[in-house]
Design goal:
The complex is a heterodimer. Chain A has helices at 59-66, 89-95, 106-109, 116-126, 132-145, 162-174, 192-209, 220-226, 244-249, 254-262, 322-327, and strands spanning 11-22, 31-43, 48-52, 74-79, 82-83, 99-102, 180-184, 212-216, 229-234, 237-243, 310-312, 314-319. Chain A is an alpha/beta fold. Chain B has an 8-stranded mixed beta sheet, sandwiched between helices. Chain B has helices at residues 47-53, 82-88, 110-124, 132-145, 151-155, 164-176, 194-211, 222-228, 246-251, 256-264, 303-307, and strands spanning 3-16, 19-32, 36-40, 63-72, 75-76, 93-96, 182-186, 214-219, 231-236, 239-245, 313-316, 319-321. Chain B has a single domain, classed as 3-Layer(aba) Sandwich (Rossmann fold). The longest helix of chain B has 18 residues, at 194-211. Chain B is an alpha/beta fold. Classes of the chains: A alpha/beta, B alpha/beta. At the A-B interface, helix 7, helix 8 and helix 10 of A face helix 7, helix 8, helix 9 and helix 10 of B. The complex binds adenosine-5'-triphosphate (ATP) (2 copies), iron/sulfur cluster and magnesium ion (MG) (2 copies).
Chain lengths: 336, 328
């Protein structure tokens, strides 16, 4: 790999934090949820970073912070060399052309009354980029790029399958020629045969257009296929980060290991229940390492001190675990 | 081994305002006592409708049985009176669903709901419901059996105080109350996180072994079925296209749809194998394709496939395939 090194990463975030205040309900008192608690993200131009972790660990919140769709509780963000932490809403709107978000549920993202043509044309029209014939041609070209024939232009969402709807959403996100695309569980609502088509197509698109992806998924096999790097989140923090092959084949954090061991494998009977208990309540996080109540190798320090994200195996692979940092975990054994 | 469940040429249609949906099109399956069978297939292929058929839970109308029989211990469920069905539900066949929250009443303590379920089973069996205190003792026992610590504290709590995994365990515990012979689990772990899914699958596996339960586990996830079931039936558009021992199906699927399905699954163990998509989309059940319902998407399809519905035939010992052109 000899791609020329860009001067600065496309996206660089330091110490990102988001705390939600939750109102009192019939079932619980008011509280504070640290949905994202001090996260660094670096995404090089043209690279793809996978973000994995279980429900509620803060993946979507982190995505929204990076695009400045929700106010930050702390931290800073640079995009294409520019500090956008305190950029005005107006300036952000112009910048958003270059950063797009694709959601899990394509049905909810499309207005049922708009045709495919109108849905894809909307951002182009709003930004005043094209009109009339030029607009029509531009939309037709975008649809062709996402693999939808021209006769789809005048269809409504209810006339499309789930995979076709997701393609329309992708075409709309591409309309403004973004550099960064954040995909939040883009195939989770799709059948596996459709997922394979969309993943394949997203990979080709990134290569052709030189896009950067932040790819959020709870499916480790999907992330392994799409992403060069992967970050594993647990309760608002990144606990392990590195090249996808490294992290998913030689995981160093006990949580990453538990996650991998829990995935049922094709053609393999049984599955290892590798982390006892439930993911913790984000409104009442455990002290020290948030994973310690479920961790099979926890030591006294884990109960009191939160581990920092430090280098594990070489410069490129970082892990936040006292035990892994001090003496490393034993090599993974085959699941029992 | 005795045949516990036998589904024979079962056809079910839904009559709706836009016409008749031919949802199940000649299902043949059997399950012996203590056996585990997985049912896989993509969304809308009829997995849940099939599961609900075993307890006659599809609302009718619109559901209409077109033909066939569903025999449980030799008795055709399709001919049973409602009272006889009620006796069967929970006692002989119990069900667990995808979304545990919607099967628990948010306003009642777990204890009340479990006692009601246990006492309901008593009356359905024709006896007098046991006293609440005895029902509660059994409830606590069942909660321990599904691996929930501190059953007494749990009994006193309300569903919203429990995690998704705990709620699913509570429902599994309730399903065990009638000592069923067959557990039907429809996507029991789909709403759960993967570490919690692994716990619940291990629990189901343990219960099946310890109690000699037969299990019919429905999932869109071939990995989940691999983990839990010795045999698997692959459904496509309301038909079972292939049935085989699970490892054999994964290693060498024979039906073109099963081949496409397995090739589409990304496998963590083999990252170099690139998943392949399947062209086309799931057919309408309002106007299902003629002949083989898979023919519009099938790479092997011939003229015969367009006109003649393939019957499932045994190609290898224990393996049957509904395809004119599949070879062992
Ligand atoms: N608007 C909000 N108000 C209050 N709490 C919120 C809000 N949005 C998210 N949270 C909480 O923040 C935490 C992280 O949520 P987030 O949606 O980022 O998780 P996630 O990792 O994307 O989960 P999933 O995999 O289920 O999508 C959760 O505890 C969630 O309940
Ligand atoms: N009450 C109903 N009235 C009309 N059609 C119905 C009804 N219930 C189910 N169907 C139809 O029957 C077909 C099979 O549905 P079913 O829920 O069994 O699919 P499934 O395989 O369980 O899918 P999923 O994986 O999404 O759960 C679908 O086309 C569905 O629209
Ligand atoms: S019967 Fe024909 S169309 Fe159907 S799966 Fe076999 S070859 Fe394909
Ligand atoms: Mg999310
Ligand atoms: Mg279903």
């Amino acid at each position: 790999m000899t791609a020329p090194l860009p001067e600065a990463p496309l996206l660089e975030a330091r110490g990102l934090a988001k705390t939600y205040l939750t109102p009192r309900t019939a079932f619980r008192p008011p509280g504070r949820v640290a949905a994202v608690a001090g996260v660094d993200v670096t995404l090089e131009a043209g690279a793809s970073l996978g973000l994995v972790g279980e429900s509620g660990c803060g993946k979507s919140t982190l995505a929204r912070l990076l695009l400045r769709l929700v106010p930050l509780s702390g931290g800073s963000i640079r995009f294409a060399g520019q500090d956008i932490t305190d950029l005005s809403e107006r300036a952000m709107r112009r910048l958003r052309r270059r950063m797009q978000l694709i959601h899990q549920n394509p049905s909810a993202a499309l207005d049922p009354r708009l045709t495919v043509m109108s849905a894809v044309a909307e951002p182009l029209r709003i930004q005043g980029i094209a009109r009339g014939r030029a607009l029509h041609d531009r939309v037709a070209a975008l649809l062709a790029e996402v693999g939808l024939p021209g006769d789809f232009l005048h269809r409504h969402p209810h006339e499309l399958s789930g995979g076709q709807k997701q393609r329309v959403c992708i075409a709309r996100a591409l309309a403004l020629e973004p550099q960064l695309v954040v995909l939040d569980e883009p195939t989770s609502a799709l059948d596996v045969s459709v997922q394979a088509q969309i993943l394949d197509f997203l990979g080709a698109l990134r290569r052709q257009r030189g896009l950067s992806y932040l790819f959020i998924s709870h499916n480790l096999a999907v992330v392994r296929q799409v992403c060069e790097r992967v970050a594993v989140m647990y309760l608002g923090r990144i606990v392990e980060e590195g090249p996808a092959a490294e992290v998913l084949e030689r995981p160093q954090h006990p949580y990453t290991r538990a996650l991998l061991a829990s995935v049922p494998r094709l053609g393999v009977a049984g599955v290892a229940a590798a982390a006892p208990g439930d993911p913790p309540n984000p409104a009442d996080p455990p002290p020290g390492c948030a994973f310690h109540p479920r961790c099979l190798v926890a030591e006294p320090a884990c109960r009191t001190t939160a581990p920092a994200l430090n280098f594990a195996r070489g410069e490129d692979h970082r892990v936040a675990c006292h035990v892994a940092a001090r003496r490393g975990l034993p090599e993974m054994t085959e699941t029992t | 081994m005795t045949t516990l469940l036998e589904i024979a040429d079962y056809r079910l249609a839904f009559d709706t305002f836009d016409g008749t949906h031919h949802v199940l099109d000649g299902i043949d399956l059997r399950l012996d006592a203590g056996e585990t069978l997985g049912v896989v297939g993509e969304t809308g292929c009829g997995k849940s409708v099939l599961a609900r058929s075993l307890l006659q839970l599809n609302p009718s109308p619109p559901a209409r049985v077109v033909s066939g029989a569903i025999r449980f211990r030799g008795e055709d469920l399709l001919r049973l009176e409602e009272a006889a069905l009620r006796r069967l539900r929970g006692r002989a066949i119990a069900m667990v669903f995808q979304d545990p929250a919607s099967y628990l009443n948010p306003l009642l303590a777990v204890a009340t709901q479990m006692e009601d379920a246990i006492r309901g089973q008593d009356s359905a069996a024709g006896g007098r419901p046991r006293p609440r205190r005895a029902a509660r003792a059994l409830a606590a026992e069942l909660l321990s059996a599904v691996g929930l610590p501190e059953p007494q504290r749990l009994l006193a709590s309300h569903p919203h105080q429990l995690s998704g995994g705990m709620r699913q365990r509570v429902l599994i515990a309730m399903a065990l109350a009638g000592e069923p012979a067959l557990l039907v689990a429809d996507e029991p772990t789909t709403a759960l996180d993967v570490t919690v899914q692994a716990q619940v699958l291990a629990l189901i596996d343990g219960l099946v072994r310890a109690r000699g339960l037969a299990l019919m586990l429905i999932s869109h996830d071939l990995g989940v079925v691999s983990a839990s079931c010795a045999r698997v039936a692959v459904m496509y558009a309301g038909t079972v296209v292939e049935e085989a021992p699970t490892p054999e199906l994964i290693a060498r699927p024979l039906h073109p749809y099963a081949q496409g399905l397995i090739a589409a699954v990304p496998d963590l163990g083999r990252p170099e194998a690139k998943p392949r998509g399947m062209p086309g989309s799931i057919p309408s059940l309002l106007h299902p394709p003629s002949g083989c319902r898979f023919h519009p998407r099938c790479p092997l399809a011939s003229e015969r496939c367009r006109v003649e519905k393939p019957l499932r035939r045994t190609l290898l010992p224990g393996r049957s395939v509904a395809c004119h052109h599949a070879t062992p």
